[in-house]
Design brief:
Length: 276
């Protein structure tokens, strides 16, 4: 498994996103993914599935240190005491002593970032997590977080796919030695899989459009992708993209789709995104 080295963390470049997965379906998919070879699981307090993700991890029979587990603290829980309580509850639900990466899920302008970063650092110092990072932080907030944090921030998890130009956030992450983790990496399929740049590369390499797009992600230095699926056959397909490489021309053609700047995940509490 290809890994990303980021400020002391070694993060598997392909992970299983678990947003919307629940109950037995979630636990079974997690166990199946780990059986295929996945070694990175992504969950969050707000997903309501940490118990199920933990159950799937236990069913896999893998040693704890073989799997990189990420969870997140929701944006309404970023005050110091709430942050600590959320992190501890996540560990209880996962039935783990610590996670590998704890993220601030979304920034909250009503709670001082300094307070949240201090709580994040304390969670790491106290052993609740091995590494810390952020999610959905545009470049300005990322710079603030980096300046405030004593501990190295290892990742910024953001929406990233060929239809959304994240060049500014990506550059900021790389400058800081951080990974950029892509959620919604396939832009939920659909039109993206019919784009000529994707279709032509798929034909050239004997791969599916989904595999081409995931390869586009992990072929970028420092990028981690965490696709979500409900289908076991898709788990295997997504994993089977480390045995080929896209050409520079193919990478450029797929990257050029970012001119669309089509964002999927925007909410009333979203920060002000970087201008394209």
């Amino acid at each position: 498994m290809h890994r990303i080295e980021a400020n002391g963390a070694s993060i598997p470049a392909l992970g299983l996103g678990t947003w919307t997965l629940k109950g037995e379906v979630c636990a079974d998919l997690v166990a199946h993914a780990l059986g295929i070879g996945y070694r990175h699981l992504d969950t969050a307090a707000s997903y309501g599935n940490e118990m199920d993700v933990g159950e799937g991890l236990r069913r896999s029979g893998l040693a704890r240190d073989e799997v990189f587990v990420t969870t997140k603290v929701w944006w309404t829980d970023l005050a110091a005491n709430d942050f600590r309580r959320s992190a501890e509850k996540s560990l209880e639900r996962l039935k783990l002593d610590q996670v590998d990466l704890l993220l601030i899920h979304w920034p909250n302008p009503k709670i001082p970032l300094a307070e949240t970063i201090e709580a994040l650092n304390k969670a790491r110092a106290d052993g609740l997590t091995r590494h810390v990072g952020v999610s959905n932080f545009p470049t300005g907030l990322l710079a603030e977080a980096l300046a405030l944090s004593d501990a190295p921030l290892v990742a910024n998890q953001v929406e990233h796919h060929p239809y959304l130009d994240q060049a500014k956030v990506y550059a900021a992450c790389r400058k800081a030695g951080m990974a950029m983790t892509s959620y919604c990496p396939l832009a939920r399929g659909g039109d993206l899989f019919a784009e000529r740049a994707v279709v032509d590369a798929a034909k050239a390499h004997g791969k599916t459009p989904g595999q081409i797009v995931l390869r586009w992600h992990v072929q970028q230095d420092g990028v981690v992708a965490i696709p979500r699926t409900t289908r076991k056959e898709r788990l295997a397909e997504n994993f089977d993209m480390f045995d080929f490489a896209l050409t520079d021309g193919e990478m450029a053609a797929i990257s050029a789709l970012g001119v669309k700047n089509a964002r999927i995940c925007g909410y009333d509490f979203s920060p002000e995104w970087d201008a394209a």
